[in-house]
Amino acid sequence: YIGHDAARVGGIMANIEAPAEFLYENLMIECNVIHASCLCGVKKLLFLASSCAYPRLAPQPMKEEYLLDGKLEPTNEGYALAKISGLKMCQLYKRQYGTDYISVMPCNVYGPRDDFDPVRSHVAAAMIRKFHAAASAGARRVELWGTGGARRELLFARDLAEACLYLMNGYSGSDFFNVGTGSDISIRELAGLVAQTVGYGGEIVFDAAHPDGMPQKLMDCGKLAKAGWKYHTGLEEGLALTYRWYLENVAKKESLS
Fold this sequence. Notes:
The protein is of the alpha/beta class.
């Protein structure tokens, strides 16, 4: 069995600065892994796509059938095209060769062992790092990209892992599944929640000169619910667990270096 979640990933800044690499490297990873799995007779493979693959202005919440039904978000087009290709490879290899390869489409994922790099990190990890640094330094304000109005759905990493295992062990069809919580939050609201988790009480300022990315990415997870699985970690609990891990494994090491 192969759980294929290897990828070049990053937040909006990283995607804007290196769209060609996000397309090329992710295509090469998935093409090699999926094709080699077929040649070697791998029994089952699960590919992790991304909600970035949905059209920029897809109806909300986004259903699986909305894939390829509109233009992509320009700020992460390279990454989105690669993820669409990997998902389609699994479907086409299944059609032609009878392989048991399936795909899932997760929303924004966060949790312990996330990448907290200032450039590569996704929204929750980036905010945790930024607010922690501001609180430690006694900074009066924190500046964030965008208007704060974009909405994102966040799923705790452990929940995603459990959903993948659930489908790996119990599903063998050609469809893919959205994996998320079915609820979203504005970036402004998320910033306030992260600041509260970290203990930062200063001003939060949004710089609208920088892009928001997709206006909203809310998943319709009804198909997965009918298959018998639902998430169980709430956002406040998940952020607290993530920050605890960050303190013990990132902030502590950086303070000693």
